[in-house]
Amino acid sequence: MNSFTFYNPVKVVFGRGRINQVQSEAAKLGSRCLIVIGQGSVRKNGILDKCIDMLDAIAVTHTLLQGVQPNPRIEMVYEGIREARKFKADFTLAIGGGSSIDTAKAIAAGVMYDGDPWDFYTMKAEVAKALPIMVLLTVAATGSEMNSISVIQNDSTRQKIRAQGHPMFPAVSILDPELTKTLPLDYTAYASVDIISHVLEGYFTSGDEHTPLQDGFTESVVRSVISGTYALMKDPADIEARSTMMWASSLALSGFTTAGIGPFRFENHLIEHALSAYHDIPHGAGLSIVMPAWMKENKKNLMHRFEKFARNVFHANTADDAIEKLEGFFREINAPTSLSHYKISNFKELAENIMECAPTRGLVLQREYVERILERAK
């Protein structure tokens, strides 16, 4: 195991009915709140109104930024910063999934920065400070509720890039599995893929062979997510399955599974972000296309890892078994596994974008390697 420094200061409030903790937790953060939501689902299902009532009860004034898109855009961040400054917000409340959370993080950091917040994503500036961030999670997928990462898309440059900095850790994240019950089955499937991808990036690409605890943790997350997804496809109201998925989402990208494994590569996410930037597809759907192709391209170099994954997750034997089983699971839950599903064929353009964005993840890739993965995914 490699040496490491682990830091994760997020306070997690987990359980059925814990939405009611919004009131007491918000009271600790400030008196003027910028609420950040997506395109209306939390308004339709009453979650937003319930939160507003709780804020009103403790005299926390608030203003609303709504309309955050999947694959959130930098333009919404700019709008949120203007609103937060005008309102003099002293904390942000993200209600929703990764898109709302990542936007709220970018706003919280951008308010405290004199330059263009896109600088955080292009590595021109570091996040030095941010407003306190509160999260009420309604979509368990990205893990943004328990890390300091924000992923934002810039349509003018066709880039989807992440920024990271300790000030963007949420102060508190409220995880109430009841709030995920209205998530459609297709997005439940995409969420499952996203969670699995977060733990497998490090699992397959770490060079340290002496990480049994981290490997076992990763394998357990994958097994739990697969069984939980099957349960939800059968009964979307299964609250125990929703609880498992919600906690798996938070743990998967919290740093627990990668602490001590040494350097690793997030290549699948890099490639998928290009797909989203050009074609605006759901992130999890893009990952279910990229991951099997990446695995097929890398299985010879990482044979021992794939064989271990096959044994410990699927009770199988070979690297091919591992890939077949995981890709088969994606198909069973109706997650796409080929670029043709979205009629994507601009491989050269995508490869160029991937090569341009690779440095933002500390990656050095060969263009031919990227093109082979895209070809396998077609």
Spell out the key features of this protein.
single chain, 378 residues, alpha/beta, Rossmann fold, Dehydroquinate synthase-like, alpha domain, 2 domains, six-stranded parallel sheet, two-stranded antiparallel sheet, 15 helices, 49% helix
What does it look like?
The protein is α/β, with parallel strands linked by helices and 378 residues long. It folds into 2 domains: 11-179, Rossmann fold, CATH 3.40.50.1970; 183-377, Dehydroquinate synthase-like - alpha domain (Dehydroquinate synthase-like, alpha domain, Up-down Bundle), CATH 1.20.1090.10. The protein contains 15 helices and 8 strands. It has helices spanning 22-26, 41-44, 47-57, 74-87, 98-110, 118-121, 185-205, 212-234, 239-252, 267-279, 283-298, 303-314, 319-332, 347-357, 367-377; strands spanning 11-14, 32-36, 61-65, 91-96, 133-137, 149-154, 159-164, 172-175. The two termini are 37 Å apart.
Q: CATH H-level name of the largest domain... which superfamily?
A: Dehydroquinate synthase-like - alpha domain
* Overall SS class: alpha/beta
CATH class of the largest domain: Mainly Alpha
At the third CATH level, what is the topology name of the largest domain? Dehydroquinate synthase-like, alpha domain
Per DSSP, the total helix count is 15
Give helix % range: 40-55%
Rg to the nearest angstrom?
Answer: 20 Å
Mean pLDDT across all amino acids: 96
Q: What are the segments in which pLDDT stays under 50 over at least 5 consecutive residues?
A: none
Beta content: 5-15%
Q: Provide the spatial order of strands within the biggest beta sheet.
A: 1-8-5-4-2-3
Largest sheet: 6 strands, parallel
